[in-house]
Design a protein that fits this description.
It is a single chain. The protein has about 240 residues and is of the alpha/beta class. It has a single domain, classed as P-loop containing nucleotide triphosphate hydrolases (Rossmann fold, 3-Layer(aba) Sandwich), CATH 3.40.50. The protein is built from 9 helices and 8 strands. The chain has helices at about 25-35, 45-55, 65-75, 105-115, 120-130, 145-150, 160-175, 180-200, 220-235, and strands at about 15-20, 40, 75-80, 90-95, 95, 135-140, 155-160, 210-215. Strands 2-6-1-7-8 form a 5-stranded parallel sheet, with helices on both faces. It has a 3-stranded antiparallel sheet with strand order 3-4-5, with helices on one face. β4 and β5 form a beta hairpin. α2 packs across α4 (about 105-115). The longest helix is centred in the last third of the chain and has 17 residues, at about 180-200. Bound molecules: cytidine-5'-diphosphate. Cytidine-5'-diphosphate (CDP) binds near residues 26, 44 and 112.
């Protein structure tokens, strides 16, 4: 196992972890942040929160103007987990716990469309940059290294084949007692990947200065170890 530098002297202020759906960002990011004593901000939950709230209010996901207005007003909070039910943290929307609701199939189906709206991205990006100003943050998403924090001190792009990502997401769904078919999971990931990587604003892509890690044949511990090796070897 790789040890981190003494007293975390030369650790980066901001770490960006990007990658496609179910590439392991949340698991890896949460563990890495815990080990470093950093805040982990999973920006996917912000887009999921906007999507869930829009659906809950009966707003048509194709109504860009209304969705954007909602994104500018919504209050999203991420707090340490209050329940041991597999959640990495609590997600509150306008003060209410919506941790699991934002993972519903309806949200999965609509989140990429809603994330493609420039006004929605602007509202979320503004909040994300504000949080990063404090430093000591691991930020997870699609556009963190390219758009949100182009000057991030360390950029990692986590990748994995569609087959492996679908199997991981399928196992997660089954573990949560959700009745899904592998084919549906594959279709849902493909659908989101396609929209996320072809949208006009902030598409999913590898930042030129990012380290790409393919996690197909790596355990969680191996991925963490690889990132720690990069942390130790990088120029401060
Ligand atoms: O956890 P999973 O990989 O399934 O996805 P997520 O990180 O929760 O993100 C859900 C969706 O939010 C993505 O499919 C993107 O459409 C959008 N998203 C984005 O556009 N930009 C980000 N920085 C993070 C997420």
């Amino acid at each position: 196992m790789t040890s981190l530098p003494d007293a975390h002297k030369s650790l980066p202020r901001t770490i960006a972890i990007d990658g496609p759906a179910a590439s392991g960002k949340t698991t890896i990011g949460t563990l890495l942040a815990e080990e470093l004593g950093y805040l982990c901000l999973d920006t996917g939950i912000m887009y999921r929160a906007v999507t869930w709230q829009a659906l809950a209010e009966g707003i048509d996901p194709e109504d860009e103007e209304s969705v954007t207005k909602l994104a500018e007003q919504i209050e999203i909070d991420v707090l340490p987990k209050s329940v041991e039910d597999g959640r990495p943290f609590d997600v509150l929307i306008n003060g209410l716990d919506r941790t699991w609701e934002i993972r519903s199939p309806e949200v999965n189906q609509n989140v990429s469309l809603i994330s493609s709206y420039p006004g929605v991205r602007e509202a979320m990006t503004r909040q994300q940059r504000k949080i990063a100003e404090r430093g000591k943050v691991v930020m997870l998403g699609r556009d963190i290294g390219t758009v949100v924090l182009p000057d991030a001190d360390l950029k990692v792009y986590l990748d994995a084949s569609l087959k492996v990502r679908a199997q991981r997401r399928y196992a997660e769904e089954i573990a949560h007692g959700n009745c899904v078919h592998l084919d549906e999971v594959i279709a849902s990931l493909k659908h989101r990947d396609a929209i996320d990587s072809t949208r006009k604003v902030a598409p999913l892509k590898v930042a030129p200065d990012a380290v790409v890690i393919n996690t197909d044949n790596l355990t969680i511990a191996q991925v963490i170890d690889k990132i720690k090796t990069i942390l130790v070897q990088r120029d401060p």
